[in-house]
């Protein structure tokens, strides 16, 4: 994604986003996209957009969420704000006329009927979806972050809290 002399590159397999200054063609910062600093499992950033008010949005496919950052310019470090829930496996995000639109690869998952097993669903036939919403305030995003943690089976102990208190992650959801 390119905006204002800056190129954003999703490094899906390394859970980072490279911020490149297009006038110097140099990486000027790398954004770690793990939902908490100690997270070891990949969250697969794929889609990126920058809103008119400076919010950098990054889809996290394996977290079923969009990460929200405040972006000022390529040289200034981004500020992590939180996570917004999406349907299953978000892959692209865009700001369309003030509305955020997220494309979800697996959508609401496997709802297509299995022709070989009446009443069942085939796990290889996901139903994609689009999610559309107005970007919430930074304060409201904190509440949505809690919803993402709950939906993924993470706990409050899975994150470095905004108060600075450090807590350990849970290895397997309950």
Assembly form of the protein: single chain
Alpha-beta classification: mainly beta
* Bulk shape: globular
Which sheet architecture does the biggest sheet show?
Answer: 4 strands, antiparallel
Span between termini: 37 Å
Query: Low-confidence runs (pLDDT<50, min 5 residues)?
Result: 160-165
Gyration radius over CA: 17 Å
Q: What's the number of extended β-strand segments?
A: 11
What order do the strands of the largest sheet run in, or round the barrel if closed?
1-2-3-4
Strand and helix order:
EEEEEEEEEEEH
SSE layout and pairings?
Blueprint: E1 2-3, E2 6-11, E3 16-21, E4 26-32, E5 45-50, E6 55-60, E7 65-70, E8 79-85, E9 88-96, E10 99-107, E11 129-133, H1 138-151
Antiparallel strand pairs: 1-2, 2-3, 3-4, 5-6, 6-7, 7-8, 9-10, 10-11
What would you say this structure looks like, in words?
This protein has 1 helix and 11 strands. The chain has one helix at residues 138-151; strands spanning 2-3, 6-11, 16-21, 26-32, 45-50, 55-60, 65-70, 79-85, 88-96, 99-107, 129-133. The strands form 3 sheets. Strands 1-2-3-4 form a 4-stranded antiparallel beta sheet, with no helix packed on it. Strands 5-6-7-8 form a 4-stranded antiparallel beta sheet. Strands 9-10-11 form a 3-stranded antiparallel beta sheet, with no helix packed on it. A hairpin with a 4-residue loop joins strand 3 and strand 4 (26-32). Residues 160-165 have low confidence and may be disordered.
